[in-house]
Design goal:
alpha+beta; 3 strands; 56% helix
């Protein structure tokens, strides 16, 4: 490489690496929120099915800093939807569903 070209190449690599970090952080926050929302939805569905009341699902969601978006019974089965906010401002809130019953 000619004089100074290595410095320019190094600067480009560093700037590129720094530019990727926020995107990786947002994707990571979204992925973690998806997993958390699925777990909370499962717990909320089990609580609602066991108590036969959507208020139990709402309490589970509240205790896990999330929102119960939907709760519906179909006989002894219940289906819930739970929404979890992501830690990143760049990614939307995540909603996951779960079903439980006897």
């Amino acid at each position: 490489m000619r004089g100074g070209a290595a410095s320019v190449a190094a600067i480009v690599l560093v700037v590129g690496a720094v530019a990727v970090l926020p995107v990786a952080g947002a994707v990571s926050a979204w992925s973690m929120a998806r997993s958390e929302a699925a777990m909370i939805a499962d717990l909320a569905a089990l609580a609602a099915a066991r108590s036969s009341a959507c208020s139990a699902a709402e309490e589970v969601a509240r205790l896990h800093d999330s929102t119960l978006a939907e709760c519906a019974f179909d006989g002894t089965d219940v289906e819930v939807a739970v929404t979890v906010s992501t830690a990143s401002a760049w990614t939307p809130a995540v909603t996951r569903r779960a079903r439980s019953g006897y």
